[in-house]
Amino acid sequence: MVTPTAPVQAMPAPLGQAHWVNPAPFDADATRPLTAEEERYYRASGLKLIWWKFIRHRIALIAGIFLVSLYASLPFVEMIAPYGMASRHADHLYAPPQPVHLFHEGRFVGPFVYPYAFKFNLEKFTRDYVEDRSTPQKLRFFCQGESYDFWGITRMNVHLICPPENGTAFLLGTDRLGRDLLSRIIYGARISLTVGLIGIAVSFVIGLTLGGLAGYLGGWVDASVSRTIEVLRSLPELPLWLALSAALPVNWSPILIFFAITIILGLLDWPGLARAVRSKLLALREEDFVKAAELMGASRARIIGRHLVPNFMSHLIASATLSIPSMILGETALSFLGLGLRPPVTSWGVLLNEAQNLAAVNLYPWLLFPMVPVILVVLAFNFMGDGLRDAADPYH
Predict the structure, then answer these.
(1) Global pTM?
(2) Exposure on the CB side of residue 267, measured as CA atoms within 13 A
(3) Taking the domains of the chain in order of start, what are their residue ranges?
(4) Looking at per-residue confidence, does 314 or 181 come out higher?
(5) CATH 1.10.3720.10: does it fit domain 65-73+183-392?
(6) Closest CA to 367 of 376, 378, 359
């Protein structure tokens, strides 16, 4: 048998202890004044809060600065490249990279290179290049070099870096036609980096539209979109790319080929995004704020664009930052196989097409240098995507 316990009573205050009572009237709304930091935080907009969280992710911030610098330099590639895209040097076929030096015989000279002299190797049937270390040749900066059409508007000849007077500066070597590889990589960045942006724009327009309608409307719209997604996802991606790229007419201009490749990449990338958008909207359309918007007479387009899409913006950011490098890799793979962009268009994939010959790679390994910017850009997009996803996620 359990004996009930008596309720615990509050102990009275000891005798003689003073009790202080605030005589001021009680105000339930009275609070302590906010500090300047708290005031700044509470008044900040959503975008500013995302930015504050993003800059704390150091790797993502560095990757973002790297990508912004790359894209900001695209309109000025003619000025940055030391040589023209098609400039040939018949005396320097397959020339190895010329390293940059600062000191000559213990004396500081500044950035300079040693000139090359070559002789034919009759055993390997190649050219053997030897540095002439007696005459250093200084590099020139912000100088006058080869002429070019700046944006097709005016004729200019100003370059960020120029080869020495009566000398050469092949910092990454040359190809089989004596063209400077560094200059061609810089020119190729304009095409390779732009393909991802245009392709992701096509993919997002289709994916958000079809995925949003399927998730919000349901019914036969959902069934039709879902079956289309399943059919496209069941097809092998790389053979489909190859088939569509091979179907492009060979007499098309390089500009038409470029836009056709970007549209192909965008059309084949939207099913994954559409499926993710559909699943998110299926979960969010039953929320109270959606019902309230419907009762207030909001249109379907406004509900989807104003209320539903911002609630999974972090997922969209992650999808975009992962899709752009996949499209860059797709264009690189197609051009490497000879089914994507073709000369005279220059991209990183077109440059790597020359590295298909294993004998050439064994003798001239610098032909693989266009692979380095591809790796750096893909890693930078992944790092920046991680930082943006965490910054835009309200639950992180």
Answers:
(1) 0.80
(2) 10
(3) 65-73+183-392, 98-169
(4) 181
(5) yes
(6) 359
